[in-house]
Amino acid sequence: MFTLRQVGCNARSMLGSLRQMSASAGPLVDVAVDNAGVATVTMQRLPVNSLNLDLLTEMNKTLDDLAKNKTRGMILTSASPTVFSAGLDIMEMYNPDFKRAETFWNTLQDVWLKLFGSGYPTAAAINGHAPAGGCLLALSCEYRVMATGKFTIGLNETALGIVAPTWFIDSMCNTITSREAEFALTTGRMFSVDEALKTGLIDETAADKAGTIEKCRGFIKKFERISPMARAATKQKIREIPLRKLMQNRQKDTEEFLNYLKNPMVQKGLEMYIASLKQKAKK
Ligand SMILES: CC(C)(COP(=O)(O)OP(=O)(O)OC[C@H]1O[C@@H](n2cnc3c(N)ncnc32)[C@H](O)[C@@H]1OP(=O)(O)O)[C@@H](O)C(=O)NCCC(=O)NCCS
């Protein structure tokens, strides 16, 4: 379900497995494996990597394949020069086909469970804006490096009249203090790169995309002498409660999402937000 490029040639066994996976390549996710066996996963649903069902399905499959092939680590980034991901594709939520909306939400849950709960190290090379679901993906990784520039990152759901699900909130609280998360979430705060660094929402900055990837690679390198099993089990223990909460409440969480979409006020809010985005794009 994704395209494959090789970077370097020492990751032979990994590469062999990845080649098999690339037989069913799709266009929205690119995977490149470096000499150390670290996979750089690039979202490439341009212009803004909004997370629709197709992109999420490819990401879900990619995460399965990386786990199966025992990747040494994963760096998540974007093919856009200015946007990491614009978050959930609003068109999946506006006047939706409810059967598709259910599959969409279940796939997003799967992606989060696999990314937040992965045994291998994960880092986000945030080379542009990361609102809402884009921020969620970054928060699901263990380390975040953001490119400097006039970019913003945050969970802005309340600004759209949407309530962020518990697991979005848990991801934020796993990264910054509950107090800061509450303030940011209730106000729909979008952080500048400097503010994100100061708050701890991101760990480092870099001048450009190459720099963000290099620093992510440096983070993953820290685990070279650490037992992968001990590492994965420790991460699992730290992340266990939010993961278990969603696994035990998936159905209820999905129903809540679908009920939101059935609310005329929410639909009106989405309609106005889409109009404002289109208006902005025309200027
Ligand atoms: C991410 C962002 C900062 C990028 O800004 P930009 O580079 O100037 O790009 P634009 O805003 O012009 O968006 C490009 C196109 O993507 C569309 N788009 C942007 N975000 C989208 C989203 N989340 N879902 C669907 N479409 C989206 C825009 O409507 C525009 O479509 P058009 O070309 O048909 O007019 C900006 O698009 C944005 O803020 N998006 C909304 C993010 C958000 O609130 N997501 C929450 C979803 S729950």
Automatic annotation (TrEMBL):
Native source species: Plutella xylostella
Stored Gene3D superfamilies: 2-enoyl-CoA Hydratase, Chain A, domain 1, 6.10.250.170
Region forming the signal peptide: none
Pfam families in UniProt: ECH_1
Protein name: Uncharacterized protein
Recorded superkingdom: Eukaryota
Transmembrane annotation, as ranges: none
